[in-house]
Design goal:
The longest helix is centred in the middle third of the chain and has 35 residues, at 83-117. The protein is of the alpha+beta class. It has helices at 2-26, 45-74, 83-117, 154-167, 178-185; strands at residues 35-37, 40-42, 130-136, 142-149, 187-192. Helix 3 (83-117) packs across helix 4. The protein has a domain at 94-192: Fusion Protein Consisting Of Minor Coat Protein, Glycine Rich Linker, Tola, And A His Tag, Chain: A, Domain 2.
Length: 195
């Protein structure tokens, strides 16, 4: 009889645990979500109020834009007195802009290349830096390295100088025109910072 009671007791406990775990793990949480079906929004009252405010602000912006465009249409466009001179200025600005992009790309590549060769010493501190003035020839070979400003830490300065010496040549300047090369790359300064 005891075996029967023990089996009945364990059976009830196992079934109760199965039932509770089923209820606990299969209960879905009910969330108030926004659903969109074929361009129809189901919104609660708070979201509807926000949507109405957004639509009214859009309408105000559109009306302001229309007024601004009417004012612009009524003003006469600026007349260009010398069209040839204007075209030359535009061409010059475009050339300067294109050169700036090329110069920035080359500068970025040079910095990345030298950083890859630079072994930062353990004595480097966040606020120190050293400047080197580099003179390069038309083929990009570094001809002269001059320290303009020391960091005060000989190991840091030496590591920076070694990185420049290892780099030896800036191959990216070969394709530049002479004017751009002379203006930006024949003589420039490199700053080393441990950051």
């Amino acid at each position: 009889m005891m075996k029967w009671l023990t089996a009945l007791f364990f059976s009830i406990i196992v079934h109760a645990l199965i039932f509770l775990s089923y209820v606990f793990f299969t209960t879905e949480s009910v969330e108030n979500t926004t659903r969109k079906i074929t361009n129809v929004n189901f919104l609660d009252e708070e979201q509807q109020a926000k949507e109405e405010v957004r639509k009214s602000s859009k309408l105000q912006e559109k009306s302001l834009r229309k007024e601004d465009s009417k004012e612009l249409n009524t003003n006469k466009p600026n007349e260009i007195e010398n069209f040839e001179e204007y075209l030359k200025e535009e061409e010059m600005e475009k050339r300067v802009s294109d050169n700036a992009d090329v110069i920035e790309q080359i500068s970025y590549k040079v910095i990345k290349d030298i950083e890859a060769l630079w072994i930062r010493p353990n004595s480097a501190k966040a606020d120190m830096f050293t400047d080197f003035n580099l003179s390069i020839n038309r083929l990009g070979i570094i001809e002269n390295i001059e320290m303009k400003k020391t960091s005060g830490d000989k190991a840091f300065d030496r590591a920076a100088l070694n990185a420049i010496r290892k780099y030896k040549q800036i191959k990216y300047v070969r394709n530049l025109d002479d004017q751009t090369f002379q203006a930006y790359f024949s003589n420039f300064t490199v700053r080393f910072k441990p950051e």
